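Late entry, written up from scratch paper. The run itself happened at the end of the previous shift, but nothing got recorded in the book at the time, so transcribing now.
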Amino acid sequence: MISKIRVLDIRDNPFLGGPSRGLFTSHKEIYSRPEVEIVNSVLAREPEGWIFRRAAVEGVKLEWIRCSGPSDLRILRNLEQFIRKNNIDVIHTRGYRGDLYVRTLLDLNWIKQPVVITKHGVQSSTNWRVRLYAWLDHRPLRMANRTIAVDTATYNLLLSWRVPKDNLTLISNPSPCFVQPDPQKLMNLRIKLGLQEPCPIVLFVARMEREKGIYDLLQAHELLRKQGKRMYLLFVGDGSCRLDMESKVALNHNKELIRFLGMQINVDEYLALSDLVVLPSYKEGMPNSLLEAMSAGKPIVATQVGGIPDLVIDGENGRLVPPGNIEGLAHAIGSQLDNPTCMREMGIKSLKMATDKFAVTKAVDALINVYKEVIKPASRPT
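Output as recorded:
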């Protein structure tokens, strides 16, 4: 019997995303458990990027496994040597590339360790490379010792992919710990951002990509302005559409009410400053930005896609609207801001859900149980 299970946790890239942000939600809790020892790693060209910067701030040890790109087959030898050198008992992957590389190592008989795969949403894409990886991912998912889905929609989709139900587990992303900033820091931030009007603050936290509904949110904001409603709109995040968004806002009647704040290591101050968090995505897994909003006790307006309905119950802790429905999005935002009492009640329910249903201790308990189960002899599917 293994007294302490050594787990290699592999993330596909060093960029901001669900798997990367999730690391910093649960690392303190899982590091405190005597049953496991986690070796966190990232596949990357160089040891740089958002996840490495955040790890330095959080004091998280992060291993770099060199991977120059999909065509760099040296990654197979690099991974095999790393696994052997670090006496790994269980391998846990969280992305298409890691799934495929580890499955290939098993097929080559270079490694023998049981494999756990977590799917942080399975999303369609127009990018040919993403579509190829998704197609190639079917076999690793079916052959893994255990596949974890982080939301109900992903769980059902994996069943349709013929992932064995006995090897499929639903473990939701945990909510992070929100730290209430000092009031003076919030006042200084408000001054720094030039938020001088006493109007509500709407916050968006995600990558600045079209699929996140950023253009819909911009149009909804303009529609509300025409209805006589004024509110600040803060965009926290970076991405390929940021410059285009900034150029559009420069010509916008609302430009004095919109701020682009770029990538932020910690968003607690911006959450504390905001009245409402909005995420009008077209596709999602289980967004950590909404879990952060819930842990800060904020009401939410979001689209009814992916794992969002697992987090937001329409009329309870927020409002759900169909993706792409700009008028519906504007109405949901406006009706929330028109009723501060309702928003406060929804914020209280958000916090309760984060504390009760999405507690980090529950997620870590479930994950450790998975590691214990797959380490048993003859647990691997054939």
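Residues 234 and 259 are 5 Å apart (CA to CA).
(Scratch paper discarded after transcription.)
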